[in-house]
Amino acid sequence: xxxxxxxxxxxxxxxxxxxxxxxxxxxxxxxxxxxxxxxxxxxxxxxxxxxxxxxxxxxxxxxxxxxxxxxxxxxxxxxxxxxxxxxxxxxxxxxxxxxxxxxxxxxxxxxxxxxxxxxxxxxxxxxxxxxxxxxxxxxxxxxxxxxxxxxxxxxxxxxxxxxxxxxxxxxxxxxxxxxxxxxxxxxxxxxxxxxxxxxxxxxxxxxxxxxxxxxxxxxxxxxxxxxxxxxxxxxxxxxxxxxxxxxxxxxxxxxxxxxxxxxxxxxxxxxxx
Length: 273
Prior knowledge:
Cyclophilin, 2 domains
Protein backbone atom coordinates (compact mmCIF):
# COMPACT_ATOMS: atom_id res chain seq x y z
CA UNK A 1 0.00 0.00 0.00
CA UNK A 2 2.85 2.32 0.89
CA UNK A 3 4.44 1.69 -2.53
CA UNK A 4 1.17 2.50 -4.29
CA UNK A 5 0.82 5.63 -2.17
CA UNK A 6 4.31 6.76 -3.16
CA UNK A 7 3.56 6.16 -6.83
CA UNK A 8 0.35 8.19 -6.60
CA UNK A 9 2.25 10.98 -4.83
CA UNK A 10 4.87 11.02 -7.59
CA UNK A 11 2.18 11.09 -10.28
CA UNK A 12 0.41 13.95 -8.48
CA UNK A 13 3.67 15.90 -8.27
CA UNK A 14 4.34 15.34 -11.97
CA UNK A 15 0.84 16.57 -12.84
CA UNK A 16 1.34 19.67 -10.68
CA UNK A 17 4.72 20.42 -12.27
CA UNK A 18 3.25 20.02 -15.77
CA UNK A 19 0.31 22.30 -14.92
CA UNK A 20 2.58 24.94 -13.44
CA UNK A 21 4.82 24.72 -16.49
CA UNK A 22 1.89 25.04 -18.88
CA UNK A 23 0.44 28.02 -17.03
CA UNK A 24 3.85 29.70 -16.79
CA UNK A 25 4.52 29.19 -20.50
CA UNK A 26 1.09 30.53 -21.39
CA UNK A 27 1.66 33.64 -19.28
CA UNK A 28 5.15 34.12 -20.73
CA UNK A 29 3.76 33.77 -24.24
CA UNK A 30 0.99 36.26 -23.50
CA UNK A 31 3.30 38.96 -22.16
CA UNK A 32 6.04 38.45 -24.77
CA UNK A 33 4.00 37.70 -27.90
CA UNK A 34 3.58 40.72 -30.14
CA UNK A 35 -0.10 41.42 -30.74
CA UNK A 36 -0.61 42.83 -34.22
CA UNK A 37 -2.56 46.05 -34.53
CA UNK A 38 -5.69 46.10 -36.74
CA UNK A 39 -5.03 46.82 -40.42
CA UNK A 40 -7.63 48.68 -42.48
CA UNK A 41 -7.95 48.17 -46.23
CA UNK A 42 -9.86 51.02 -47.86
CA UNK A 43 -10.68 50.72 -51.54
CA UNK A 44 -11.40 54.04 -53.27
CA UNK A 45 -13.06 53.86 -56.68
CA UNK A 46 -10.81 55.01 -59.55
CA UNK A 47 -7.99 55.88 -57.13
CA UNK A 48 -6.70 52.71 -55.50
CA UNK A 49 -6.08 51.15 -52.10
CA UNK A 50 -5.26 52.83 -48.81
CA UNK A 51 -4.03 50.70 -45.92
CA UNK A 52 -3.96 52.02 -42.37
CA UNK A 53 -2.71 50.65 -39.07
CA UNK A 54 -4.97 51.41 -36.10
CA UNK A 55 -3.69 52.05 -32.57
CA UNK A 56 -6.15 50.72 -29.96
CA UNK A 57 -3.73 51.42 -27.12
CA UNK A 58 -4.12 55.16 -27.77
CA UNK A 59 -7.84 55.33 -28.62
CA UNK A 60 -9.56 52.03 -27.77
CA UNK A 61 -13.16 53.23 -28.07
CA UNK A 62 -12.47 55.07 -31.31
CA UNK A 63 -10.85 51.99 -32.83
CA UNK A 64 -13.68 49.74 -31.61
CA UNK A 65 -16.22 52.11 -33.17
CA UNK A 66 -14.43 52.28 -36.53
CA UNK A 67 -14.04 48.49 -36.69
CA UNK A 68 -17.69 47.90 -35.74
CA UNK A 69 -18.89 50.31 -38.44
CA UNK A 70 -16.60 48.74 -41.04
CA UNK A 71 -17.68 45.21 -40.10
CA UNK A 72 -21.32 46.19 -40.66
CA UNK A 73 -20.55 47.66 -44.09
CA UNK A 74 -21.34 51.21 -42.99
CA UNK A 75 -18.56 52.88 -44.97
CA UNK A 76 -19.08 50.93 -48.18
CA UNK A 77 -20.30 53.28 -50.91
CA UNK A 78 -19.87 56.50 -48.92
CA UNK A 79 -17.87 59.49 -50.17
CA UNK A 80 -14.94 61.67 -49.29
CA UNK A 81 -17.28 64.64 -49.14
CA UNK A 82 -14.84 67.28 -47.90
CA UNK A 83 -11.37 67.79 -49.35
CA UNK A 84 -9.03 70.66 -48.52
CA UNK A 85 -5.68 70.57 -50.30
CA UNK A 86 -2.75 70.92 -47.93
CA UNK A 87 -4.99 70.01 -45.00
CA UNK A 88 -7.05 66.79 -45.12
CA UNK A 89 -9.59 64.56 -46.86
CA UNK A 90 -12.78 63.78 -44.91
CA UNK A 91 -15.36 61.02 -45.34
CA UNK A 92 -17.61 58.57 -43.55
CA UNK A 93 -20.85 60.57 -43.49
CA UNK A 94 -24.06 58.71 -44.33
CA UNK A 95 -25.63 61.87 -45.76
CA UNK A 96 -22.59 62.65 -47.88
CA UNK A 97 -22.44 66.29 -46.82
CA UNK A 98 -21.13 66.32 -43.24
CA UNK A 99 -24.53 66.45 -41.53
CA UNK A 100 -25.12 62.75 -40.88
CA UNK A 101 -24.69 60.59 -37.78
CA UNK A 102 -24.44 56.81 -37.40
CA UNK A 103 -27.17 54.86 -35.63
CA UNK A 104 -26.88 52.06 -33.09
CA UNK A 105 -27.98 49.54 -35.71
CA UNK A 106 -24.89 50.48 -37.75
CA UNK A 107 -22.69 48.81 -35.12
CA UNK A 108 -25.06 45.99 -34.17
CA UNK A 109 -26.36 47.48 -30.92
CA UNK A 110 -29.98 47.78 -32.08
CA UNK A 111 -32.27 46.50 -34.80
CA UNK A 112 -32.79 48.95 -37.63
CA UNK A 113 -36.19 50.62 -37.62
CA UNK A 114 -36.98 49.85 -33.98
CA UNK A 115 -37.57 52.32 -31.15
CA UNK A 116 -34.22 51.40 -29.62
CA UNK A 117 -32.34 52.40 -32.76
CA UNK A 118 -31.10 55.97 -32.54
CA UNK A 119 -28.22 58.21 -33.53
CA UNK A 120 -25.15 58.01 -31.33
CA UNK A 121 -21.73 59.54 -30.78
CA UNK A 122 -18.61 58.52 -28.84
CA UNK A 123 -16.25 60.07 -26.32
CA UNK A 124 -13.40 62.10 -27.80
CA UNK A 125 -10.19 60.31 -26.89
CA UNK A 126 -7.69 63.17 -26.98
CA UNK A 127 -5.63 65.23 -24.55
CA UNK A 128 -7.97 68.22 -24.19
CA UNK A 129 -10.70 65.77 -23.14
CA UNK A 130 -8.53 64.03 -20.55
CA UNK A 131 -7.10 61.15 -22.62
CA UNK A 132 -3.38 60.45 -23.04
CA UNK A 133 -3.44 60.12 -26.81
CA UNK A 134 0.04 60.95 -28.11
CA UNK A 135 -0.52 60.50 -31.84
CA UNK A 136 0.14 63.75 -33.71
CA UNK A 137 -1.85 64.97 -36.71
CA UNK A 138 0.95 64.42 -39.21
CA UNK A 139 0.68 63.54 -42.90
CA UNK A 140 -1.25 60.26 -43.25
CA UNK A 141 -2.66 60.13 -39.72
CA UNK A 142 -6.39 59.38 -39.47
CA UNK A 143 -8.53 61.24 -36.91
CA UNK A 144 -12.20 61.46 -36.02
CA UNK A 145 -14.06 64.52 -37.24
CA UNK A 146 -16.37 66.17 -34.73
CA UNK A 147 -18.70 69.13 -34.35
CA UNK A 148 -18.04 72.47 -32.67
CA UNK A 149 -21.08 73.69 -30.76
CA UNK A 150 -19.26 76.52 -28.99
CA UNK A 151 -20.59 78.96 -31.59
CA UNK A 152 -23.92 78.54 -29.76
CA UNK A 153 -22.38 78.79 -26.30
CA UNK A 154 -18.88 78.63 -24.82
CA UNK A 155 -20.30 76.22 -22.24
CA UNK A 156 -20.77 73.51 -24.87
CA UNK A 157 -17.12 72.46 -25.00
CA UNK A 158 -17.73 69.00 -23.53
CA UNK A 159 -20.60 68.36 -25.93
CA UNK A 160 -18.32 69.36 -28.82
CA UNK A 161 -15.47 67.12 -27.66
CA UNK A 162 -17.83 64.14 -27.41
CA UNK A 163 -19.62 64.52 -30.74
CA UNK A 164 -17.71 62.22 -33.11
CA UNK A 165 -19.70 59.45 -34.75
CA UNK A 166 -18.55 57.93 -38.03
CA UNK A 167 -16.83 60.74 -39.90
CA UNK A 168 -13.05 60.66 -40.13
CA UNK A 169 -10.35 62.64 -41.86
CA UNK A 170 -6.89 61.72 -43.10
CA UNK A 171 -4.32 64.49 -42.70
CA UNK A 172 -2.42 65.43 -45.85
CA UNK A 173 0.00 67.71 -44.02
CA UNK A 174 1.36 68.24 -40.54
CA UNK A 175 -1.60 69.89 -38.81
CA UNK A 176 -0.11 70.66 -35.41
CA UNK A 177 -2.96 73.03 -34.53
CA UNK A 178 -5.25 69.98 -34.25
CA UNK A 179 -2.99 68.04 -31.88
CA UNK A 180 -4.69 67.19 -28.60
CA UNK A 181 -8.12 68.30 -29.80
CA UNK A 182 -9.11 65.47 -32.15
CA UNK A 183 -9.08 61.71 -31.65
CA UNK A 184 -6.18 60.41 -33.73
CA UNK A 185 -6.33 56.62 -33.99
CA UNK A 186 -4.23 55.32 -36.86
CA UNK A 187 -1.89 56.03 -39.75
CA UNK A 188 -1.59 55.23 -43.45
CA UNK A 189 1.02 52.51 -44.01
CA UNK A 190 0.37 51.97 -47.73
CA UNK A 191 -1.25 54.18 -50.35
CA UNK A 192 -0.27 57.62 -49.11
CA UNK A 193 0.10 58.51 -52.78
CA UNK A 194 -3.58 57.62 -53.19
CA UNK A 195 -4.47 59.98 -50.33
CA UNK A 196 -2.56 62.81 -51.99
CA UNK A 197 -4.14 62.05 -55.36
CA UNK A 198 -7.56 62.42 -53.75
CA UNK A 199 -6.37 65.63 -52.09
CA UNK A 200 -5.76 67.14 -55.52
CA UNK A 201 -9.19 66.58 -57.08
CA UNK A 202 -11.17 69.56 -58.32
CA UNK A 203 -13.42 71.05 -55.64
CA UNK A 204 -16.16 73.66 -55.47
CA UNK A 205 -17.60 75.98 -52.84
CA UNK A 206 -20.01 74.57 -50.29
CA UNK A 207 -21.93 75.85 -47.28
CA UNK A 208 -19.90 75.53 -44.10
CA UNK A 209 -21.33 73.23 -41.41
CA UNK A 210 -20.76 73.03 -37.63
CA UNK A 211 -17.81 70.70 -38.28
CA UNK A 212 -14.81 72.50 -36.81
CA UNK A 213 -12.18 70.84 -39.05
CA UNK A 214 -11.97 73.88 -41.26
CA UNK A 215 -9.21 76.34 -42.06
CA UNK A 216 -11.66 78.91 -43.42
CA UNK A 217 -13.26 81.74 -41.47
CA UNK A 218 -15.79 82.60 -44.17
CA UNK A 219 -19.31 81.28 -44.52
CA UNK A 220 -18.34 79.03 -47.41
CA UNK A 221 -15.48 76.64 -47.99
CA UNK A 222 -14.13 75.40 -51.31
CA UNK A 223 -14.00 71.72 -50.36
CA UNK A 224 -16.76 69.73 -52.09
CA UNK A 225 -15.42 67.47 -54.86
CA UNK A 226 -16.82 68.29 -58.29
CA UNK A 227 -16.87 64.56 -59.02
CA UNK A 228 -17.75 62.11 -56.25
CA UNK A 229 -14.84 60.28 -54.63
CA UNK A 230 -16.40 56.96 -53.61
CA UNK A 231 -15.16 54.65 -50.87
CA UNK A 232 -15.95 51.27 -52.45
CA UNK A 233 -15.25 49.25 -49.32
CA UNK A 234 -13.59 49.28 -45.91
CA UNK A 235 -12.45 46.05 -44.27
CA UNK A 236 -10.38 45.48 -41.13
CA UNK A 237 -8.01 42.61 -40.33
CA UNK A 238 -7.99 42.21 -36.54
CA UNK A 239 -5.86 39.03 -36.42
CA UNK A 240 -8.45 37.28 -34.28
CA UNK A 241 -8.73 40.00 -31.64
CA UNK A 242 -12.25 41.07 -30.67
CA UNK A 243 -12.25 44.81 -29.99
CA UNK A 244 -15.88 44.80 -28.90
CA UNK A 245 -18.32 47.67 -29.23
CA UNK A 246 -17.73 51.31 -28.31
CA UNK A 247 -19.36 53.00 -25.35
CA UNK A 248 -21.99 55.18 -27.00
CA UNK A 249 -23.42 58.57 -26.02
CA UNK A 250 -26.61 60.37 -27.00
CA UNK A 251 -26.20 62.94 -29.76
CA UNK A 252 -26.49 66.54 -28.55
CA UNK A 253 -29.91 67.98 -29.38
CA UNK A 254 -29.92 71.65 -30.38
CA UNK A 255 -33.70 72.03 -29.97
CA UNK A 256 -33.63 70.46 -26.53
CA UNK A 257 -30.73 72.70 -25.48
CA UNK A 258 -32.54 75.89 -26.62
CA UNK A 259 -35.65 74.84 -24.73
CA UNK A 260 -33.76 74.07 -21.51
CA UNK A 261 -31.60 77.20 -21.77
CA UNK A 262 -34.08 79.80 -23.03
CA UNK A 263 -37.48 78.16 -22.59
CA UNK A 264 -38.16 78.39 -26.32
CA UNK A 265 -39.77 75.41 -28.04
CA UNK A 266 -38.27 75.64 -31.52
CA UNK A 267 -39.83 72.34 -32.57
CA UNK A 268 -43.31 73.72 -31.93
CA UNK A 269 -42.37 77.01 -33.61
CA UNK A 270 -41.17 75.23 -36.76
CA UNK A 271 -44.33 73.10 -36.82
CA UNK A 272 -46.57 76.15 -36.59
CA UNK A 273 -44.67 77.95 -39.32
